[in-house]
């Protein structure tokens, strides 16, 4: 009587290789259609956005001390001081997150609020020129210096965000990666828009 032969493991091994081959093909297809690029560029946009928010928050944190210092010397500038305080309250009341980048209206509200705060701050600094004692105050000079540095960092953060969004949006709009964007719902993201592009690269002047 012949001994029964053991079952061959060849079909099992073949199935394993087939699975790996399919996975490799899928990975290759995802890479070719831009899926991996969307992942990296989306993360780059989120990181750049986070830095923009951080720098705007840093500016907002400087404002209360700045207003109080000016108030000590410029008691007659109540309207200007109140405008800065209200603009700061409006800007900080807007809740922002990475999801804001998928909501053009929310992004627009954020940009508008920050723009109004920038305008109010510029008017406050212009008013300070009329008070020599205020300009000579050490605390005021230190706050001005910090504010100038923060405005510069805001400018750099905005520029990096604009560049990151531009790269992402080009990918989302170009063929064939636009098909991947539709399938995986990668929406075009909003960017900062100003009437005068020079305003992005030129922070408000802070005089000493």
Question: Could you walk me through the main structural features you see in this protein, from its secondary elements to its overall organization?
Answer:
With 208 residues, the protein is an all-alpha fold. The chain has a domain at 49-160 and 195-201: de novo design (two linked rop proteins) (Up-down Bundle), CATH 1.20.1440.20. It contains eight helices and no strands. It has helices at 10-32, 35-73, 78-93, 104-128, 132-136, 138-173, 177-184, 198-201. Keywords: Membrane, Transmembrane, Transmembrane helix.
Q: What labels describe this entry?
A:
de novo design (two linked rop proteins), mainly alpha, elongated, 0% strand, 208 residues
How far is the N terminus from the C terminus?
107 Å
Low-pLDDT residue intervals, each spanning 5 or more residues: 195-208
**What level of helicity do the residues show?**
over 70%
Shape: elongated
Oligomerization state: single chain
Radius of gyration: 27 Å
How do the helices and strands follow one another from N- to C-terminus? HHHHHHHH
Task: Please name the CATH topology of one domain.
Answer: de novo design (two linked rop proteins)
Q: Number of helix segments? A: 8
Please indicate the percent range of residues in DSSP E strands (runs of 2 or more): under 5%
| Main sheet specs | none
Q: What's the CATH C level of one domain?
A: Mainly Alpha
Structural class: mainly alpha
